[in-house]
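Continuing the batch. This is chain 6 of the set; chains 1 through 5 are on the previous pages. Same settings as before, nothing changed between runs. Recording input and output for traceability.
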Amino acid sequence: MRTPIIAGNWKMFKTVAEATALVREMRHALNEIEGVEKVLCPPFTALAAVADLIRPGKILLGAQDMHWEEKGAFTGEISPVMLKELCQYVIIGHSERRQYFAETDETVSRKVRAALAHGLLAIVCVGENLAQNEGGQTEAIVSAQVKAALQGLTAAQAETIVVAYEPIWAIGTGKAATGAGANAVIGLTIRGTVASLFGEATAQTLRVQYGGSVTPENIQEFMTQPDIDGALVGGASLVAAKFVPIVKMSAATKAAR
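Output for chain 6:
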């Protein structure tokens, strides 16, 4: 059985002081929740402070992006070598990176391979925008993104990847996909694509999250679906009174299945 994973993507929110206050508020409750992997992804500036607060414990740390090179003249960038001292996970290919910062399928692929080469676990984001969704292009877009992200990997490497299905039209809009709708894309398109590349065993081993306007009120709808293994949580991860119940309900829902 795949271990559920709930990751909080704080995006460009929280100063170091605000980040430490939030972690102090929820770390005890998160550490007590069993049966689900918990990952916090603060801004780069707060990674070291959050790392200190959650050690030792059962909360893992993730970065929101990284460069594929180990070092070099890349002003403003962060390398996998720098991250692996602090993090276990890194988010790669988030739709906001693709939309605002010229992230492409090619750069996503390079970053995934670099993360794995340095012992970092990748949360790879895929998803279609509203026009693509309404135009019936979801399967083609998502499948192409998955293929590009996993290009050049072995089956064993692919099994370590976490894919986050984030329909762009649902991110920060308050308009979440339905549990059944997200499950269909994840089960048929994402796992189907992975199966075509590496076989059914790898497709069933790889974990896939849902992301997009996840709240304490709708998390159960997603976690009851057989192909959804967790959530990449945005806005609700910035509030302890929302994020902790999301994690707690996720663990309880999967345990009851």
